[in-house]
Amino acid sequence: MTEFNLTYESFDCTSENAGARWTEWIEDFEIFLSACNITNKARRRAALLHCGGKELRRTYNTMKDENDEYDDIRGKLTKYFEPQRNKRFERLKFRQAKQEADETVDAFVSRLKHLSLYCEFNDVDDQILDQLAIYCQSITLRKKILERNDIVLDKVLEHARTIEAVELHMKEIDQSHGNESSGKFEKTAYEVNAISERVCSFCKLVHRSNECPAKHRRCNSCGTKGHFSRCCPHPKKLRTVYADEQDDDSDY
Prior knowledge:
Blueprint: H1 18-35, H2 41-52, H3 54-61, H4 70-81, H5 87-95, H6 105-115, H7 124-135, H8 139-147, H9 153-176
Helix pairs in contact: 1-4, 6-7, 7-8, 8-9
C-alpha cells in the first residue's frame, strides 16, 4: 500500500477574495491526491475534510449531507465560494502585473493568462496586448505592438522570441570580447540611435543601440575607428599601422 503524508496547507475561508483562492487551492489539492495515489472515494473525502482545515469543515457542515462523497463536497464548496469572487479585485491584480527582469515574454503572458481567468474580460488577448505595451521589458516589442492596430498576440510572441534570442546572442558576443560595449565611450557618428532588428552597417551584425562591437576597433582597411573592414567605406585608403592594436574583426 502506498504511504503518504497528509500534511497540507489548510484553506483560509476568511481570506480576501476566497472564491479565486478556493479554485487554486482545490486544483493544487487534487494534484496532491494524484501524487499520493489516493483514489478510493472514502479516503479522498476524508483527505479533503482533513487537509482543508477546521474552518473549511465548519463551512461544509452548514450544507452537508451524510451521503456526500468527495465530488459532492467539492461541488458544494465551489458553489459556496464562487459568488465571493471579485472581478474588480482580479482585474486590479492583472493591471498591476509587470514583466520581471529575468522573465521571458512567454512566461509573462502565461502569468497574465492565469491572472485573467476571473477578470471576465470579453477579449483576453487584447487585454494582454495592452499589458505588454505598458509593462514588457523590451522597448522594441512595445513599438511593434503600437505600430499596428490589428496585431495579434501570437505574432507578438513570435517577435518577442526573436528579440530575446538576438539579445542573448549579443550578450554572448559581449562576454567573449571582454564586455567592450560596457563603460563610458566617446560618441562617434556610427552609433545606432535606437534598438533595431536591422543589420548594423558598421559591423554587419544585429545588436542593441550603442552596443556595436566595432565601436572602438580600428578598420583593417583604412585604420579608422568605428567599423570593421568588411563595412569599410574607404577600402582603398592606406592604413596607418598601430603596433599595439590587434586586428578589428579577426574573430568575425
